[in-house]
Amino acid sequence: LPRLVREFVAQNNTSQIKHVIQILSQEFALSQHPHSRKGGLIGLAACSIALGKDSGLYLKELIEPVLTCFNDADSRLRYYACEALYNIVKVARGSVLPHFNVLFDGLSKLAADPDPNVKSGSELLDRLLKDIVTESNQFDLVGFIPLLRERIYSNNQYARQFIISWILVLESVPDINLLDYLPEILDGLFQILGDNSKEIRKMCEVALGEFLKEIKKNPSSVKFAEMANILVIHCQAADDLIQLTAMCWMREFIQLAGRVMLPYSSGILTAVLPCLSYDDRKKNIKEVANVCNQSLMKLVIPEDDEMDEAKPSMTIPAEPTSEESLSRPETVTAGESQHGRNELDVTLNQPLFFPCSCERIQVTLNLDGIVQVLDYHLSDTSIGMMTRIAVLKWLYHLYIKTPRKMFRHTDSLFPILLRTLSDESDEVILKDLELLAEIASSPAGQTEEGHGPSDGSDVRPGPVELHVPARPGQLSSSSTKGLECSPSTPTMNSYFYKFMINLLKRFSTERKLLETRGAFIIRQLCLLLNAENIFHSMADILLREEDLKFASTMVHTLNTILLTSSELFQLRNQLKDLKTLESRNLFCCLYRSWCHNPVTTVSLCFLTQNYKHAYDLIQKFGDLEVTVDFLTEVDKLVQLIECPIFTYLRLQLLDVKNNPYLIKALYGLLMLLPQSSAFQLLSHRLQCVPNPELMQTTDYTKPSTSFKRTAASNIDYTELLQHFEKVQNKHLEARHQRAGRAEQLDRRVVL
């Protein structure tokens, strides 16, 4: 047969050559008899060897019948087919590349062949074909990708191993740019990464690592946008290796592609946020996810707050990396993107990169989608603490960078932020308060009437005078924004008062929160916002509180904070002297609400050095219902008088002549107390007062040498005393009503 074929070649008799190949194919290789098929395969191989370099002219006729035999039921015949094709390819070399797809298809099937001999033969053929592809520069990658994309989803281990080996080979060939087609096969690669075989997982890991190296070397040619959603899916995989690898890729994509990744922020956050609460068993994933989260946060810049869909482009846009994935574009320059990357703690090793083909990429921040994801994770009670903290940091960051757009979502976010105050973690509550303080103080929150939290928005009957300090030190430590967006702006916005209303409602309906975290929350708010505003607004709201028992409890809590918290040192000093009109107005506002609790009213008078009025109040205590709770509060007040807060008061006991009502007020408290430890404590203190015989009450109508009295002379103490009596009468009626209802209930139970 070879001699006959060589003669035909020498004669250039192509028709006879084709006739010989046809006979070998039709009458032998495709025969029904297995021995004839074996003979036909041997004959086709011999024919190819005889043709030599001319075999390339007849490859279609030579290859097709051999590939048909790859599906033969006889394993020995499949082995003969491998051997025949090996000889054909070895002779033809680069000429077989136009037929590469059919060869690859056949080999991919043999790679999973159950017969070891067939598998061994296919491996030899596979190595030969790889050598040919490696040394050639005519490989048709475009035509091969659809087949590779189809075969990469095979579940057979051997087929997967075969696919990965070919991807590694193609990736190593300098003339073949497989990176352009990575979006076509990336999902399949991550599927293979979850294979049960350690060897295959390792091979796949190496392949993905090579691709990632190539991406870092040539980021300008990478289609980041087309692969973003693929990574989002696999960042949520149950398999740790898949999740870690995908998260590492996501980290590099965010750092290399920059704002190209912004349209996919909601998906990225969906994948990344839950990982932040992983324990040490998944420490690596948690660390990479944290970097992804911080890097993505830096991509949001103040210019995003100014962008609207209707706004014309600021620059001439270059062609996007992926026209399909960058929808509703808006233009931001690379410099603008870099501007927003200097406020967070994590410093990235890689600079923000924009592909050179489109340095001015048009992207739109999908704020609605981001807020929806953040809202979902904050509402989910099963989410870990670190995830909730990250969500609150995100919301705070968005309110800093894009306040105008974020305030459109405040109505929906406000309820969940209030509920978060009941969180078990102090750190979560701190971040929540920081966010609520930003909402309450941002100039962007100056909204039209009715645009705010719906619940309680109509409670405020009139304006309350609010004062905001001009000190940047009032800013929270984590905030690096300028004064124009800080809590030290000239006025509080329309959300501040609504926040105070809803916070008090929260305390009213959830008493456990008030007992366990009430003081903590209010003290932190006094740091984040202005303490005077906090107390002024709460006192104004409590003045109209219908639940008198809650009002009394809340006033007691506020009074304790006012007298004991280091955060309120300045406010105490302001109230102590009452030198300014503002401080006197604040005192009158607090006093009217403090009247819900008689003992706290007296303590406020002690703080403000209104000793005469304190004495007048104590005289009224004889008309009140003295209960155990009342005496307990008097006991606590005595304890407070011995604290450093009232050092100035104890020193004033030395000046008997100018402070007679202070001594009389203290004696009044002493007379109220039963023979208890507090009684002994106060009694011993009063025994230290020098020259008791000099305690003569001077005429109050005469001018006093005390500057204190002169400064507060415009306060109508008679009216305040009448208000105190009015409020206490309300409390008395309320107690009688509660007692009546309890008695009726007892009768019903008896009946």
Overall geometry comes to rod-shaped
CATH topology of one domain: Leucine-rich Repeat Variant
Question: So what's the oligomer here?
Answer: single chain
Instruction: Provide the β-strand percentage band.
Output: under 5%
- Whole-Å distance between the termini? 118 Å
Weakly predicted, low-confidence segments: 309-360, 448-490, 700-711
Average residue pLDDT: 83
Helix percentage = 55-70%
Looking at the overall shape, the CATH architecture of one domain is Alpha Horseshoe
How does this model look, in words?
- The structure is a single chain.
- The protein contains 35 helices and no strands.
- Helix content is about 65%, strand content about 0%.
- It has helices at about 1-10, 15-30, 35-50, 60-70, 75-90, 100-110, 115-135, 140-150, 155-170, 180-195, 200-215, 225-235, 240-255, 265-270, 285-300, 335-340, 365-380, 385-400, 405, 410-420, 425-440, 495-510, 510-530, 530-540, 550-565, 570-575, 580-595, 600-605, 610-620, 630-640, 645-650, 660-670, 675-685, 705-710, 715-750.
- The radius of gyration is 42 Å and the shape is rod-shaped.
- Mean pLDDT is about 85; it is low at about 310-360, about 450-490 and about 700-710.
- Among the domains are: about 1-140, Leucine-rich Repeat Variant (Alpha Horseshoe), CATH 1.25.10.10; about 365-445, Leucine-rich Repeat Variant (Alpha Horseshoe); about 595-690 and about 715-750, no CATH class.
- The protein starts with a helix and ends with a helix.
- It is mainly alpha-helical and about 750 residues long.
- Belongs to the VAC14 family.
- One of its GO terms (cellular component) is PAS complex.
- One of its GO terms (biological process) is phosphatidylinositol biosynthetic process.
- It is found in: Endosome membrane; Microsome membrane.
- It comes from Quiscalus mexicanus (Great-tailed grackle).
